[in-house]
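COURSE: Structural Biology Practicum
ASSIGNMENT: Worksheet 4, Part C
STUDENT ID: 0417
INSTRUCTIONS: Below are two proteins. For each, the amino acid sequence is given first, followed by its structure token string. Answer the questions at the end about the second protein only.

PROTEIN I
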Amino acid sequence: MTAGFDMTMPAFASNAPALLPDEALAKLQEGNKKFVADTEACAANISKRRQGVAKSQAPWAIVLTCSDSRVVPELVFGGVTLGELFVARNAGNVVDTDVLGTIEYGTEHLHAPLIVVMGHKRCGAVSAACEVVSKGTKLDGSIGKMTQPILPVALAETDRGDNFVDKTVHANAFNGAERILTESAIVSRLVEEGKVKIVPAYYDLDTGVVDFLHKV
């Protein structure tokens, strides 16, 4: 018999009560303030926490963000530790099948009440997509395929000046949040029921501040 992963079972789910969406958002906001005020205070007691979550998890927020090595959600949100965030990462925080499946599992089976789609300042993937649009740059290999979902967002941006990349980063976060809502019947239902919120966000590499944009 071939081993399989039974998505009908709430594997790893915890009986711990979930936060309400607004409570989860407030917790992220306070954590980011802590990070900006005193980065050194964000070290986590990993060893003790590891034992506590080894057999179950109850993450209270899902974060889709970029693979950029400077963007570390667990630190950016105030030293969040093991078992708290359900994180999906790829270059340009692009919504694809893998990401949607991850988010659906996090909301429906792990009962995370908040989804944050977070772009960041000077994103390389978005910059590459903007170069394709503004300069006709050809991207080799899988990098070109990776940036394709960002191209329509860049094409829709009318300001091709100095703020072209930054505005596209913001728009890409909104686009990702909207795609999650429209392409996932599971998430859409949970949003309609008031159990989940989707919030685009923007992380400033220079200041450490996360700007939570309006709810989708």
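PROTEIN II
(use this one for the questions)
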Amino acid sequence: MLFLDKTPELSDVDMMIYKYVTANLDKVSLMRIRDLADATHVSTATILRFCRKFECSGFSEFRVRLRMYAEQSSATQVDLADETTYIDFLKRTSQAEFKSRIAQAAELLKDAELVLFVGVGSSGIVAEYGALYFSSLFTLALHIEDPLNHPFNHLSKGLSGKLCIIAVSVSGETSEVIKYIQHINAHQCKILSITNSEKSTIARLSDVNIPYYIHRETYQGADITSQLPALYTVECIAREIRRKLDSEAK
């Protein structure tokens, strides 16, 4: 989020300030703290608290980091013809490390009676696809559209033992997904995550994590990192589970 690699916890007021800042990057980087407070109809103290949530000691540091971020974002060029990212990832899928992680995921999931996919934004679209794909090849799977307001937040012990969560997140720091996993962990559900890095919060909260390590891309403040690795990984897991179940049935 902006120049951070993670998503800080933002209140409704913080989100209003954040939306103003992202819509006026160049303008805000030249403002005084009083100017931003007036533009967003809050106090300067509120602006300072907002800056600290972005790991800045004050508004001056926030403004400098914002200016650097704006310059970097405007300089970003998206090369749609560059296939290096995809080729490098697909090469790594043939290596022992990736295959081992897929096997671990399949072992974790093969006895599950219900799989819940959770993700936000473009990762939410991958999660929705994953639920459809799993339901076709493996078992009943559902997509959680709103992680913070979902009926499966309240689970019986009998259900939690048959349930597995698959969390999809590029950054591995999506706050809504983190909160959902932390709640679900209290019910001792199994957690699998698909993230860009195994050092992320979501990865560390999971029983099994499959990282894909591709270059993250942003354009004008938006994360446009490819979701191809996540889609490919979802399909690999489902196919491996189907293979295991068919092999055990023989």
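ANSWER KEY EXCERPT:
Q1: The chain has two domains: 12-75, 83-249.
Q2: The domain at 83-249 is CATH 3.40.50.10490 (Rossmann fold).
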